[in-house]
Give the backbone structure.
Amino acid sequence: MKRLYIGISLFILLSVLLVGLYTIVSSGIPEIGIRSFIKGEYSSQFHTYLSENLPFSEKLKEYNLYLNGIYTFAGFSQSSDTQILVPIVNDAADHGTAISPSTTVEAVLPSTSTSYPEESSTVTVTEPTTEATESTTETEEAVTESDPVVESLGQILLVGDRAIELPVADYDAISNYAQAVNQIAESMDNVNTYSILVPNAAGLYAPTAYQSHEDSQQAMIDHAYNAMDDSVRKVDAFQMLEERKDEYLYFRTDHHWTHLGSYYAYKAFCYSADMIPQPLTNFQTGSYERFLGTMYSFLSGYPQREILRDNPDYLTYYIPYRDTTVKYYDSADMSYGGTIDILYPLSESYSNKYICFLGGDHPITVIDTNYPKDRVCLLIKESYGNAFATWLTSHYSRIICVDPREFNRNGKPALNIADLADEMGVDDCIILNYPLMINSSAYGSWLSRMAK
């Protein structure tokens, strides 16, 4: 059947070759440059060129999806063999997703007292929207520095009933990311800076053929850590996760880790920070029984995604045992925002269940707890950090979560991370990211600008 699939595809391509040859040549093939070829940009340009000039290209795409269906359901889909490799334009390095309850709150100011909330506040919220509200105030000037282009950062690999993002290594971008971490650490006096680089599902579950040394996530993380200064404490979360890969650490239909996966990264952090990680038995649990995530959405149009639909995820969350009050802010001076639950309740019809952690990717989220000592943590993160942040409530009286994608760009407010750390009395700074972020020159730029 596999030979039949290949034969049919070749026949169709050859049948239009003679018809399209003159059109392709006369339209002007993109010029190839050494840098664009090495960086992989030329292949994208050439793909666009063919899409615009190859006769019957749209029909060929539709027929290719049909052939994918034949290939998938012809007996290959029930094994652990790779079924499809789908290129995607992943814009996760450019923005996140969040819900925005309507309740407004007062500005957060640095606290000099040691009083703590006795119980979590309860508010009435609206149904979630798909994005956080963006705003700037009169005290915040929009940044006009030119933005880097957000890259195509990887591919989707479907293996058995698991869809995973397969990042492509860009060691220049990884080096720039490491330098951004160094700049942040250097900019903050008397603050302990930790770097936590975590693998995604591909780092643990992709077939060996898709994890060459150059594109192995361990190699990416090692390269980043080797480029970071000694003042940055590097947390080895990879080994902690890899040793437990048989547990439910990553969703199969979504690109995020599970709450349990983030727990093991939290344990690795505690060991690096000389803290005692709290056992899972200290936390009550809740769950959503059916969960179809971002990978399911990305495979729209491909019949293979029916495999994911027939094998949905579930989401188990662990409830912090400390009282918490959580506020999110859409402005750098924290003058506007709302109150939200640390584990936001979602209706069964809401598909993106991972957004229950902190309500998603707000520019700034502040978690206050009744931890008995005045200890403040700054967590610089993208969405992988949302589930991770909940574990920090066991060790800090305040956790300030900052998403660097929401600042120091065109149309976004300015934020200097050292000024924020000084105003909020930060003791520890954790910078947590997953592989697609460290391979993004765009995300590295957002991170670096926070230290200027």
About this structure: Confidence is low (pLDDT under 50) at residues 21-25, 32-40, 65-80, 109-140.
